[in-house]
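Progress note, sequence design subtask.
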């Protein structure tokens, strides 16, 4: 498989719509290849992420697994390196080189939780990694982890098949909408 997959545990349709969607958009924008949701099956969430990919480009994948345990075991058996983001882990500053090596050689699964994360996740992971040992958010943890893995290279990534393209400007808002025939 390879690349970077984000596994979002414990999605709750009523409470997590917005934050799960932000997990996916952050994963996509900052250089992950795929998000897999677990918890409650939410077809609306999957469709909304797919729509963003259609408009803004790239090959980012979105899917659902009803069985996160089996999913993690399968990915590990395929050689991928499982990184659980948690405030209880070791500091990302101390393992970032290890993560970059594992990304280059094996591919990564970055696991983020929502409410209480089952203890098996801590045990199944190859490493539990903290973005500070303070409580905050899955979106923030993911953003810092992806940036440390990519060392800033994700910030200038572009998507040839994008329909919407931002023209960066210091003042105002400039967006180009490409016609179908203009898209590669
Ligand atoms: C709002 S927190 C809830 C965690 C939950 N109370 C628990 O003890 O498992 C949701 C997710 O954000 C991520 N997170 C929060 N703080 C973090 C930190 N300091 N470092 C890494 N990840 C963090 C973790 O993935 C966590 O599962």
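Output:
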């Amino acid at each position: 498989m390879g690349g970077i997959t984000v596994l979002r545990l414990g999605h709750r349709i009523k409470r997590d719509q917005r934050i799960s969607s932000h997990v996916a958009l952050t994963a996509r924008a900052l250089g992950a290849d795929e998000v897999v949701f677990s918890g409650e099956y939410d077809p609306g969430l999957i469709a909304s992420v797919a729509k963003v990919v259609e408009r803004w480009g790239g090959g980012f994948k979105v899917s659902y697994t009803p069985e996160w345990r089996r999913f993690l075991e399968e990915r590990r058996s395929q050689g991928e390196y499982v990184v659980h983001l948690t405030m209880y882990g070791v500091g990302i500053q101390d393992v970032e080189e290890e993560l970059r090596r594992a990304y280059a050689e094996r591919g990564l699964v970055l696991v983020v939780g929502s409410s209480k994360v089952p203890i098996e996740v801590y045990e199944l992971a190859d490493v539990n990694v903290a973005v500070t040992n303070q409580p905050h958010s899955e979106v923030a943890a993911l953003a810092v982890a992806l940036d440390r893995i990519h060392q800033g290279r994700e910030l200038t990534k572009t998507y040839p098949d994008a329909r919407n393209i931002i023209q960066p400007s210091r003042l105002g808002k400039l967006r180009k909408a490409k016609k179908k025939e203009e898209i590669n």
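Residues 85-87, 112-114, 116-117, 130-132, 134-138, 141 surround S-adenosylmethionine (CB under 6 Å). Work on this subtask will continue into the next period as scheduled.
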